[in-house]
Target: Chemotaxis protein MotB
Amino acid sequence: MAPRLDRTNQPIIIVKRRRKGNHAGHHGGAWKVAYADFVTAMMAFFLLLWLLNVTTSSQKQVIANYFDPTSVSMATSGSGGVLGGQSILEPGAQISNTRPMGTAVPLPGHPLTVKEENDVPSEEPNVDKAQFEKFEAAKKEAEKEDRKFKEAEAAIKQAIQSVPDLKEMQQNLIVDQTPEGLRIQIVDAAGKAMFPGGSSEPYDYTRKLLQQVQNVVDKLPNKLSIRGHTDATPFRSAGGYNNWDLSTDRANASRRALEYAGLDPNRVIDVSGRADKDPLFPDRPRAAENRRISIIMLREAPAPGAVAPAAASGAAAAIPPAPVPVPGVPANKQPILVPAPQR
Model:
C-alpha cells in the first residue's frame, strides 16, 4: 500500500478561467452593412437631384397630379346642367362670370371710349390693301432694277474683254452694287494710271475705256453721279491748286468724255470732287487705287431689302395713355380705356 501524501504543506494553486470575449465588433462585418446603407442613401439622393434637374415643368406637373389627384369637390357636381345641381335660391347659383359695368373717367384733353374686356369685335380689323399692294409693287420694281444692274455689270466686263487694247485694263475697272446704285470705278492699278500726275486730262486709253462704259450705261435710263478721288499724297501748286481742285477737274473731264461718247447731258445730276476723303483703301491712304473716277448709276427704286411694309393703317399706331382707375371698382373689374379715333 502506497504511502499517503501529506498535502498540508503544498502551496495552493488557483486556476483562473477566462471566457473569451467576442471581438466581432472590431474585426467583424457589421460596419460594412452600415456603410452600404449610407452609400445607397447618397446615391438615391443624388439621383433625385439629377431627376429634378432634367425634368421639365410640365413633367413635374404630371407627377404632382399623380400623387395629388383632383379631389371630388373640384369635379362637376349635380347634374352638370346650368345650375350644376344647385337651387336657384342658393347663393352659389346667383354668382355670375360677368362683372358690373365700370365707369370711365376721361382726362381733360384726352377723349376716351370705354371697351369691355368681354366685348368681341364684330369683324376683323381692316387691312390696308392698297398699302400692301404698294409695298409689293416697290419690292418687284427694286428686284427688277437689281437684275438690270447685274446684266449691266456683266456687259461692261464683257465689253472690256472684247476690245484688244483694253484687255490689260481689266484690273483698272471695278464694278459693284451699293445702296446708291451700280458703281463703276476706273482706278489707277497695275502700274497704269488713268490721268497724268497732277493733270486732269485723261489718257487716250482712258477715253476708250469711258467709251465702253458709255455704251452700256446708255442702255439704262438711270441718272448718273460722277465723282473724282485722289490719294493722300499732298499736292499743291503755286496758285493754291490742290487735291480738291484736281479731283473735281478729273470728274468734269470724265463727264465731258462720256458726253462726247454719246451720253445725254441731262442724265448727269452730280459732278463732284472728293479729294482724299473717301479712299478705296482707308488703311493705305497713299495707294494708287485711291486715285479713281466713280460713275454711279443711281437707283430709281430702293435697294432690295430696303423696302419695308408700312403699318396697315399707314402710320405707326399711337400708344394709348395709361387708364385712369375708377374709384370704388376692383382692379380686376376696371374698364379698358381706348383712345378715341382721330378726326
Notes: Residues 130-298 form a domain with the 60s Ribosomal Protein L30; Chain: A; fold (CATH 3.30.1330.60). Residues 129-162 form the longest helix (34 residues).
